[in-house]
Amino acid sequence: MTAIDWTAKAAALRLDGRAFIDGTRTDTVQSFSKSSPVDGRFLCDVSRGQAVDIDRAVAAARQAFEDGRWRRKSPAARKMILQAFAAKLLAHKEELALLETLDMGKPIRYSQSVDVPSAARCIQWYAEAIDKVYGEIAPTPESALALIEQEPVGVVGVIVPWNYPMIMTAWKIAPALATGNSVVLKPSEKSPLTALRMAELALDAGLPAGVFNVVPGFGPEAGSPLALHMDVDCIAFTGSTKVGKQIHVMAGQSNLKRAWTELGGKSPNIVFADCPDLDRAVDAAVGSIFFNQGESCNAPSRLFVEESIKPLFLEKALARLPSYQPGNPLLPQTVMGALVDNTQLSTVLRYIAQGKADGAALLAGGEQAMAETGGYYVQPTVFDGVRNDMTIAREEIFGPVLAVLGFTDAAEVVRQANQSIYGLQAAVWTRDINKAHGVARALRAGTVHVNQYDEDDITVPFGGFKQSGVGRDKSLHALHKYTETKTTWIRLDSPF
Description:
The protein has helices at 6-12, 51-66, 75-91, 93-104, 108-129, 165-178, 193-204, 219-228, 241-253, 278-290, 310-320, 342-357, 391-394, 410-418, 433-442, and strands spanning 19-21, 24-26, 31-35, 42-47, 136-137, 144-152, 155-159, 182-186, 212-214, 234-238, 258-262, 268-271, 302-306, 361-364, 368-369, 377-378, 381-384, 401-407, 422-423, 425-429, 447-450, 465-466, 469-470, 483-491. It contains 15 helices and 24 strands. A hairpin with a 6-residue loop joins β5 and β6 (144-152). A seven-stranded mixed β-sheet has the order 14-17-18-13-12-20-21, with helices on both faces. A six-stranded mixed β-sheet has the order 9-8-7-10-11-23, sandwiched between helices. The chain is α/β, with parallel strands linked by helices. It is 38% helix and 21% strand.
């Protein structure tokens, strides 16, 4: 098989950053210049959506919903169209992967092998689920028949982040579309290109115009008008806890629309001395924090290692760091790419400086890398001697920074692990099944991994406790976010 020259493909790419409303690319009054974090190259001008553009998109979505061009299609018909949509994504895998890498800096090897297939798998899975979900009949007296059904909520506003643009979009739009809703999506201004292309491919697959609209733009200018819109029935958001709180306020200030938020994390990864496979634990700890440049809400950024094995664990971890040095994301051998922009670069470097100032021991990394490229790269960074009250142990850094803490007592490490405003994910490594169950039950997190980290599937829900948000993405549980529960009570007269 001939290797793909991604650099040449990138040079030949012709990009369209215009909004997608009511089935067509359309200009907005304003636009902004989008550059790539890979090397600072100009990509294209992108629509800078304003309230008037959100109004247009919502109106198109409302019209599509009310006239029933999508929601009144049979489950089998909706399934076939969404299956064709998923197939279109796979057929355009190279194009979409390249857009994802140029847009937000992740290595092309993962854009192609993880992001595009995962997005397609999500849409395909919900397509298959459409005609597998049944209503209910309530246990009423013989004089009545009570039907309990799920109806689409209406117009769904979706706001997704920049770290997994395609996957996060799919997690939201797939169940929303499967249940018959219309969607207005605002992708992050830092990574809008794949969402715009996905909308075109959905139309090509047979999704009616107006059902899936995409308006790029900045949060205050496009995101807020979407969350505040009186004709949006539901808002689904993934992003920071700070903005998530604002989304809930805006939902209440407007029409009391339901608001689903998947927010930040500071996930604890707990390794006991009786860990059944230390090398696998090291690989998971290092690989999971440096994957996607550390720009993952569920990254295991707090590593708790039992003191008796901590020296050996750190020795093994540091020996793996050469494999995670940042490189050109367009080269297939690169495993850690660029941070999304200069703002995020500055944020990560500021946290590293704070870790040093607070007295944590910098074991590796801590510096900007590849500055001469014009891109935004940071060395894989490891701190030891971290206390749970330090800033780097409390706040979400969203970069390749690992904070290592020691422990000697199971009850104490659980207390420290739970001592966080977040509760997205956690992990425990032990060969003792009783300890594994006990610690997993005690950890306040939406997902607890045992003897692995981040093994995952569309069939299980994703979301967190506490300030990691409300509601769940993925699995059949997500369908309920985008439906209304309706009861129809029918009085029956006895025929006898």
